[in-house]
Amino acid sequence: MIAAFQYGREIGKETTMGQYPKLQMYIDGQWCVGSEGRSQDVIDPATEQVIGQLPHASKADLDRALEAAERGFQVWKNKTALERSPIIRRIADLLRQRASDIAFIMSTEQGKVFSEALEEIEKGAEHFEWMAEEGKRAYGRIIPARSNGIRQVVMVEPVGPVAAFTPWNFPAASPIRKLSTALGAGCSIIIKASEETPASCMEVVRACVDAGVPAGVINLVFGVPSEISEYLIRSPIIRKVTFTGSVPVGKKLAELAAQEMKTCTMELGGHSPVLVFDDVDCTKVVNLVAKGKFRNAGQVCVSPTRFFVHESIHQRFASEFAAVASGIKVGSGLDKTSQMGPLANPRRLEAMEKLTADVRMRGGKVAAGGERIGNRGLFWRPTVFVDAPDEADVMRTEPFGPIASIVSFASFEEAIARANSVKYGLASYLFTRSAKTAARVSEALQVGMLAINNLSVSPPEAPIGGVKDSGYGREGGAEGLMQFMNVKYISEGHLD
């Protein structure tokens, strides 16, 4: 790495030196800066200091990336899956070797605690491993013919160059999902990562390059998001669009893609319900879900947000949850004693303030947190609302921050109706000892993912995605790989 900003951070009693890399794009096999010299500041959310200058791509840069992706696609698709696999597996090896360095970068630019950043890289390596093998299993099929002398074949083949757009909350994991799937399917890709957390994706791309991915197969650009997305999606070279982010932006990109008849994968926002029935160990559930709630300061699309707790245990659950939240140590992600880092940007801080004010105005109780910590750094206390009314903003809008809303329910039907009442349908969570309740909830919830008595909804072998306004298409697993494939039917006869 070439250091653009070097400094020491107190990590417990020790100071660890780290380097934030010089920010660059990667186009047609070359690390580069924008041809027009435009750039923007990148800040450390723990200090609000500028730590780097991010170059922006011009239209000429985007044209170079598009042309490179077109050439790269021809190179990569003509390699067999068996030839592509060891290169993709090598990426996983390099990520593991560089995990600590990349985690430092991620914690610096995004704010999450170092241990979470490290876990993001280590789990990200598993996605490359999975797709390296699953790419060898992109099977077609033979359909029994209707008459003798006819062979009916279904083939799958890579869709073509992909335009990928990724968010700031998981600046390595989200790009990794898209990069690994594109490579496993035999596609080239242009990825526009978040301008607020660029270096994490840059280092993932560097691992891909160092592993032997040919020039042109992967291109990384930054700039004004709306300008880049429109330019790439409208290009005839791009054949697939994949986006992870907010519902409003996802709808705009889907509309652009529809105008060009391009396939999409849209992994959008969520507002995950958590149903807690009265047959569970309350303390065990609280300790489990509180840890998941405040992971990455709640800036997770599958974060548990709306807790529907049976009325018989509601008061105890809320009291214990608030106590856990109040005990969480908030600080720099690079301080080894921190359990939660800062919010990633000032917009999230403002959103937390508005949601808290709205709950108070509507008569809900703030049982923990509900305020900023200090006036330097984007720190917010882990917050618990109790009995916020259904019309409160926090019950209708994804908070995307360290806020949990706990309300009671009296019956199964009430819990399901309230859980399904929002426009989102991404992830959900259920805690019960009853197999019957688990089966009924599994059928009744309008979501793309459900975890029962655990919080795991996104391993590499599983299809990730939502319904309703939470998007369509899937990432991960065999289903995710097929999103990057075209299906071709061939009916073959004989003339003799």
Structure in words:
The chain is of the alpha/beta class and 496 residues long. The chain has two domains: 3-268 and 472-487, Aldehyde Dehydrogenase, Chain A, domain 1 (3-Layer(aba) Sandwich); 272-460, Aldehyde Dehydrogenase, Chain A, domain 2 (3-Layer(aba) Sandwich), CATH 3.40.309. Helix content is 38%, strand content 23%. The protein has 15 helices and 22 strands. It has helices at 59-77, 81-97, 99-110, 114-134, 173-185, 198-211, 225-234, 247-259, 282-293, 314-326, 346-361, 393-396, 412-419, 435-444, 477-482; strands at residues 3-11, 14-21, 25-27, 30-32, 39-44, 49-55, 141-143, 151-158, 162-165, 189-192, 218-221, 240-244, 263-267, 272-276, 304-310, 365-368, 383-386, 403-409, 427-431, 449-452, 471-472, 485-492. It has a seven-stranded mixed sheet with strand order 16-17-18-15-14-19-20, sandwiched between helices. Strand 5 and strand 6 (49-55) form a beta hairpin. The longest helix has 21 residues, at 114-134. The chain is globular, with a radius of gyration of 23 Å. The N and C termini lie far apart (65 Å).
